[in-house]
Amino acid sequence: xxxxxxxxxxxxxxxxxxxxxxxxxxxxxxxxxxxxxxxxxxxxxxxxxxxxxxxxxxxxxxxxxxxxxxxxxxxxxxxxxxxxxxxxxxxxxxxxxxxxxxxxxxxxxxxxxxxxxxxxxxxxxxxxxxxxxxxxxxxxxxxxxxxxxxxxxxxxxxxxxxxxxxxxxxxxxxxxxxxxxxxxxxxxxxxxxxxxxxxxxxxx
Length: 204
Fold this sequence. Notes:
By secondary structure, this protein is α+β, with helices and mostly antiparallel strands. Helices cover 33% and strands 17% of the residues. It has helices at 54-67, 88-105, 109-112, 115-122, 127-134, 142-152, 187-190; strands at 11-22, 28-38, 47-53, 174-175, 182-184.
């Protein structure tokens, strides 16, 4: 009797749907949708969809590198003072670079063992709250945070009376312009998924 072949694991990640989010009258930034579809046992949820901005990717790479010093992590798309939200080519080049970055790190078993990575791609927790969660300083576990976000489709409730202001991070991706990209000023809307996640969409 021929044994059945084991089902091969896969991880599909798409970085798509760049949207401009206004910070004030003069400044704005772009965030991107991260769509995950997988059958890997490493993931709490097999399908997920979150939104992240460039500086959060910078934070993630720094944290992953500090916890895996012997691994050479792939580079993020370079920062450039000439980056413009008005330039579709600039935006798409950055989107493509972020997707390639995630595709590579999600294939590395050592990096997949870092809970920060899972919270980054499967919840909307801020970097501060990700650190608090993995350090055991929250009432919820990593798995609970991921399941809760999947249920609510919005940011996980913060435990503090006030969330630390995002300005504590060096804002390397702020822009003062407008373009034809999608705009959003409401946090719940900007962090929602577009369309259905029941099947893997094709990247245009």
